[in-house]
Structure formats: C-alpha cells, structure tokens
Amino acid sequence: MLTSLRLDNLAVPVNYRNNKTDTGLLKLGSLIGNNTQIGANVVIQPGILVGTDCFISPGVLLEKNLPDKTFCRFKQQLETKENLTTYTPNIHLQLKQKLIETSL
Q1: Is residue 49 assigned to a domain?
Q2: Structural domain total, the chain
Q3: Strand 55-56 and strand 71-72: pairing?
C-alpha cells in the first residue's frame, strides 16, 4: 500500500541525497525503482524513494528511503508469558441478560 497524503495535511517532503525538499504537493506517493519486489501488507509512507533491485519483505512499514539493491524486512519478536485471565463460558450471555433486565 502506498500512501500519498499526510495526516497533518502538510506538503509531502522528499529526502534526496540528504537534502530534504518540500515538494509543495499535498499528495505524492512513492518513487519505486525498476526490478523492485514488494511483499504483501507493505506500507510505504508519502515521498519515500525506493531504489532499483530492492526487495521489501511482507509486513514492512517503510518510513525512510532505500538505496539500490537493498533487502528490507521487518523482524518481530514473539513474546510469550503466563496467561492470567481465564475464559468463563456463557459470561457474555450473563452480561447480556443483566443489561436486558436493567433496561426494562
């Protein structure tokens, strides 16, 4: 997914060769080089430049430019811990019944 509009409604800047340039445009997507592969569920912010021959893995939120021939992936860490909550069957039905009774 390429975004083209900033949520703050300001002009979209482009950072090229370490020079941040105000484009004066309220809408500007991304510039993507040839032979670049983009995985599923990738979000590329407005004004981002992606070089040629890049590979962007699924699930990446891209907020900075990528130079040519860059491999980019999102590495998440799985956290596991003891579950301190217990499932109570029919709790929703009990709550629903109480709501019905109090609204009558």
Answers
A1: yes
A2: 1
A3: parallel
